[in-house]
Design goal:
Elements (H helix, E strand, L loop, with lengths): L6 E3 L2 E3 L6 E5 L8 H14 L3 E6 L2 H4 L20 H8 L6 H11 L2 E6 L2 H9 L5 E3 L7 H8 L5 E4 L5 H13 L5 E6 L14 H9 L2 E6 L5 H8 L4 E5 L17 H18 L19 E4 L14 E4 L10 H4 L3 E2 L14 E2 L1
Parallel strand pairs: 3-4, 3-10, 4-5, 6-7, 7-8, 8-9, 9-10
Antiparallel strand pairs: 1-2, 11-12, 13-14
Helix pairs in contact: 1-4, 1-10, 6-7, 9-10
Length: 352
Amino acid sequence: MINKKYIEIDGKKIGPEFKPYIIAELSANHNGSIENAFKTIEEAAKCGADAIKLQTYTPDTMTIDCDKEDFQIKGGLWDGHNLYQLYQEAHTPFEWHKQLFEKAKEVGITVFSTPFDESAVELLEDLDAPAYKIASFELTDLPLIKRVAETGKPMIMSTGMANLAEIEEAIKTARENGCDDLVVLHCISAYPAPYEQANLATIPDLANKFDVISGLSDHTLGTVVSVASIALGACLIEKHFILDRNDKGPDSSFSIEPDELKRLVEDTEAAHAAIGNAGYERKPVEEQNARFRRSLYIVKDINEGELLTEAHVRRIRPGYGLAPKHFDDVIGKKATKFIERGTPVNWELLSD
């Protein structure tokens, strides 16, 4: 087993001890405009995302142009398209990649991509991509996983639709071919994915079963599921990102906008900070409030030698006297001196 506590991408550590790593997925949200892609990269950086992720393919590396039944999309967001038409609309041209990498460097955000075949890996290697993502739909493409692993770069795998055996096979292939730095993302491949099928409990199970850093590729609407995943150990969150959902496109309806990405960055960091460690010692921030606990106080003047009764003592706030558990113990004790109303009870004031 690898048993790594963290991995690094572009100098940033990803693991349970570090703040969540947030990937803004550009995917098809450039809508065919490189200028739109540039603006999206700039905005992702402004929102505080750690990385912007591309998808590297052409229609011809994904499928063939064919109108047979097998290639038709029925239902869902892309109803009425064949596969080739979808990828023609959605792809990020190879010739854009160098400029997109340069733009990311210019604005100070990490950029890497999901390759969908070996030609994409070669392009990304030429651009010195710092990491690779394997898409859920390609998790069973073991030759592709093998080629990516051979680069020796960190790998992130999504597990949408995969059963346990397929996940195990993909991880084994990656590890046996040179991948030491691996993050495995729980994913539901539905667009959007319903909350009630998010099954976030899978995140810690992946980490435990496969001894990997785990995270979430989130296709639900909004950010609540992503934030909730942090409490279950997600170290990396991936969300599709768009400048404006009104700019309709293949992925627009389930993508988050800049205000949501900014909130995602802030809320996941806060959720991670809130987890802390299991412990029952009083926290520093509680010290000032401890004085407002209940304790035993003299509520009626009592003379020296007089026996304390329930008329003399009450369990009230603040907390400078004996703890309330001693109430029965002090009843019937003698006052060692005159005790004024409003005095906290302590043992030095009492005798048998």
